[in-house]
Amino acid sequence: MKKLLLIMSVFVTTAVFAQKDISTTLTTPTPYSAIINGIPVSPSGKIVNLGPALTAQDTIFVIMCFNQNGSLVPITHTVNGTAGIRWGANISHGAVATNGVLDFTVTPSLPFNITTFSGASICAVAYLQNGGNVDVNIVNNSSCNQVTMTVNAGINDMAAISNSVKVFPNPAKDVINFAIEGNLAKSISVMDITGKLIENVGTSFGESQINLNNYSNGIYLYQIKAQDGQLIKSGKFTVSK
To answer: What residues are paired with 204 via a beta bridge?
Structure first.
């Protein structure tokens, strides 16, 4: 029986002629996502089976890795005071045909305390075990989206996140939408032109929509803030009905 098995030790270089057995692609987090210690981060993506069909009894593991100058190194974190826990998951699934696609999510345990990287790309990695022979060709069984992660975002990181903010449509009539790269943004405050607070709304996966039914025509100010209250971006939009 074929098994997809995560190898959590030594990685070796892939020969250029090696057969690619499985492909993994991250869909979240998005570029410039920022990790704040103690806040959960749940990467998700897709696995494509490029080899023979899998059955429900085959085991699929996914682990998150750094991409450090072309070398993939497992990301570790602290769980209940124990350091060095690999950031990975056993993925439940049914049958997966050749070229079949399987969605996955890797959910961390809390507290989630990554302190060892900033500005590194991360990848989702899986390995193939076929007939007892482990395929340790990491490039065969992984893909890296060059997703830049940060820890407790600094000035340069905040500038990148701020530049990603989209507020639309503007002028707005019925709703105003906010889209911010990554998972750092946690709240959006809207004020009138005098600075009086109108409402405060949360964000979900960097997105938020505000209903403008109770808004009068005019100019409004907004502030987008992180979990710790750090200002990501401020600006204005116009309501015109």
So the answer is: 207
Tell me the residue type at 147. V
Taking the domains of the chain in order of start, what are their residue ranges?
A: 3-151, 155-239
CB-CB contact of 88 with 63 (8 Å): yes
Tell me the pLDDT tens digit for each residue of 80-119: 777 777 788 888 888 889 999 999 888 765 555 555 555 5
DSSP code for 54 = B
C-alpha atoms less than 13 angstroms from C-alpha of 92 in its C-beta half-sphere: 0
| pLDDT, position 14 | 30
pLDDT tens-place string over residues 135-178? 445 555 555 555 656 555 555 567 777 888 999 999 999 999 99
**pTM across the whole model:** 0.55
Give CA–CA dist 28/47, Å, rounded. 13
Pairing of strands 231-239, 218-226: antiparallel
Compute φ and ψ for 139, nearest 5 degrees.
Answer: -70, -25
| Pairing between β-strand 128-130 and β-strand 133-135 as defined by DSSP bridges | antiparallel
CATH annotation of 3-151 = 2.60.40
- Asked if omega into 29 is within 30° of 0 (cis), the reply is yes
- Give the strand pairing for 128-130 and 120-125: unpaired
CA distances from 48 to 66, 136, 178, 198 (A): 21, 18, 32, 47
With respect to CATH, is domain 155-239 assigned 2.60.34.10? no
Above pLDDT 70, what percent of the chain? Answer: 65
Please tell me if the domain spanning 3-151 has the same topology as the one spanning 155-239.
Answer: yes
Task: Give residue for tokens 């490029």.
Answer: 50
Alpha-carbon separation of residue 32 from 2, 141, 162 (angstroms): 36, 24, 10
